[in-house]
Amino acid sequence: MKSALVLFGLIVMVAVPVVARAADPDWKAVEQALGKPGQIQPGDVFRVGMPRTDLAVTVKGVPVKAGFALGSYAAFKQMGDRAMVMGDLVLLDQEVPAVMSGLFSGGLEVTAVHNHLNEMSPHVMYMHYEGHGDAVQLAKALRQALSASGTPLGASGAVAAVSGGPALDTKQIEQALGRQGRDIGGGVFQITVARAEAITGMGRPLLPAMGVVTVMNFQPTADGKAAITGDFVLIDKEVNAVAKTLRQHGIDVTALHNHGLMDTPRLFYMHFWANDDPAKLAQGLRAALDQTNSVKAK
């Protein structure tokens, strides 16, 4: 590219370097590499859900839907000429070692391994991971690692639609929490709340769609009740205030830990469980949410 420069009355042609723009990632190729469809989320995050629909898991005797508490996922974000992927894998105990080795072989890093809930049958663990590089290569590495598990990939593994059975008064839940939610399939109703401050990891923005968000899931159970689970994203000074508030409202705190390694501010994730009247539980979650620096209700 050339532009004209006038110098002492003379027109001089000056070469101007053209800065190449990084090519947009091929998300269709990422879907093909992983064997699961994904969706663009706010902030240009490409998120692929990989629910463990192959598992029949109960928590305290309550059968839980895959979308309620068994939702493996991968969140991709293009950053310049490289992509970042982070997410969470739901694994049976015996699957953990081989999947971890597979992640390492593919150049990905493990950032946490832990429980989210208690009294689960069969017992499952949750493995958080992160990787940087070409998006398609990251997807291939992730799929190779998951081949050591029973995670349904390919055409199978969709969350089945639910007809009949107990239903939730979602308007009542939304009113109690002061925020709108959505049906995420399988009869599970979800409300998410972002933190108000900017979150970064190694200087790069970490967005709500990448898993850095408070999640509250409701699943209808018998006798008009609902089970709830999810996690609060907290900074250190909020941890005990939120835990105390949840316990005051009859909600169990089932885990407290990190998900990432290099987040700023340092984040802690508090998982919870209860099975009770949904409006009562929503009020308890709202009281706990009010202890955090979350985006305010509109």
Q: What's this, in brief?
A:
The chain is of the alpha+beta class and 298 residues long. The chain has seven helices and 20 strands.
Structure overview:
This protein has 298 residues and is of the alpha+beta class. The protein has two domains: 25-151, Alpha-Beta Plaits (2-Layer Sandwich); 166-298, Alpha-Beta Plaits (2-Layer Sandwich). It is 21% helix and 37% strand. The strands form five sheets. It has a six-stranded antiparallel sheet with strand order 3-4-7-8-11-9. Strands 12-13-16-17-20-18 form a six-stranded antiparallel sheet, covered by helices on one side. Strands 6-5-10 form a three-stranded antiparallel sheet. α6 runs antiparallel to α7 (278-289). The N and C termini lie far apart (49 Å).
Spans of at least 5 consecutive residues with low confidence: 16-21, 156-162
**Class from secondary-structure proportions:** alpha+beta
Give the end-to-end Cα distance, rounded to a whole number of Å.
49 Å
Number of domains: 2
Write the layout of secondary structure elements.
Elements: E1 2-7, E2 10-15, H1 27-34, E3 38-41, E4 45-51, E5 57-59, E6 62-64, H2 66-69, E7 71-79, E8 82-92, H3 96-105, E9 109-114, E10 120-121, E11 124-133, H4 135-146, H5 170-177, E12 182-183, E13 189-193, E14 200-201, E15 204-205, E16 214-220, E17 226-234, H6 239-248, E18 252-257, E19 263-264, E20 268-276, H7 278-289
Antiparallel strand pairs: 1-2, 3-4, 4-7, 5-6, 5-10, 7-8, 8-11, 9-11, 12-13, 13-16, 14-15, 14-19, 16-17, 17-20, 18-20
Helix pairs in contact: 1-4, 3-4, 5-7, 6-7
